[in-house]
Structure prediction request, 360 residues.
Amino acid sequence: MSIEFRITSEFGDLSKIAEERNASPEWRKIFEIKPSIGRIVKLRGKLPTAIDIPDILYDLSDFSGINISPVELLEPLSKLAELEATYYHLAENLGTRAALSCGEYERIPDFIDLAKDLTAWIVWVRWKPHRGEDYIVLHRKIVHQLKQGLILGWSRAFQHRPFSYFEKYELERGTSFQEVENKSPQVKPIFRLRAATNHLALPSIIAGLENVYPLERIASLALMGYYPDGRGLVGVAKEIGVKKETLSAALDRASEILIQTKNGITPRKSLRRIVEELKQVPIIRYPSGKNVERTNPRLKLFGISKLPENLSSRERKIISFAIRHKEGVLIYSSKDIADKIGASKSMVCRVIKRAAVIGP
Prediction:
């Protein structure tokens, strides 16, 4: 069933159009491939163009298991553009209203542009059909953001105003810029990743990530929306038991490799397999219930099939205690091991670290 394109700003009309699209098999086909499109748009930081089609097709084939031709991809891309344009008349009205409520009469065109940009980003990135969000949910998201988030977005984007915009009392109590002792905030992780990968096609990015350690790979793939299920650095850090700052630092190390990666190389494994292998790395916990950090050498001991030959019997006993666990929970902490063999905790940690470096 084809649904004709209609220009309207009435909430009731837009809600009805959303319901019609939900009932249309033709429009529901978009649900299947939308996650791949959204990941590429987020990675590149812009709406898709012809140059992004190979990356979308690679994501569909290598990660989602969907094989379609470039010509077949054009139809859902055009429908997403139509979906975005459906709300442009509403964006114009609510953008104008926001400008008037802020007293920014002369900036009405800018508010309208911001409203349209916000609408586009919701359609292409924030709307997630793979999490059960249909066209009704999309409609509610757009209406809510245009009503509630537009002024906030304007304030964040244009908070640095010329002095002529300030009242006299605001200037008198202001602090000179030179007197402010504060470091500039760190660039957001997604912006750092984009800067490191803007010269690479998606297959080359994945190939570059094959040459980094698992933690760096997890940080990059989490930010790209692949591991696990696109929860970002904060959600992944909580799940695997590390600090967000640890993952952020791992992302920077991965970015250094990606910057030096040449475009055109291809990965040895499929993207789906790389992600699944990372998910299979066990999450081990301390007796206290806290997750063992992925940087902890004890985790490497679980992958050693045979202990190094040059370990003493005492050191072998330390290793055997270090890897004992019950349903993923370590039985002994490093202090417990030290007490059992009559050694210091630092000595136990040195033995574990050396064995993890040597083996397997």
The longest helix spans residues 135-157. The beta strands are 325-326, 329-330. Residues 297-358 form one domain.
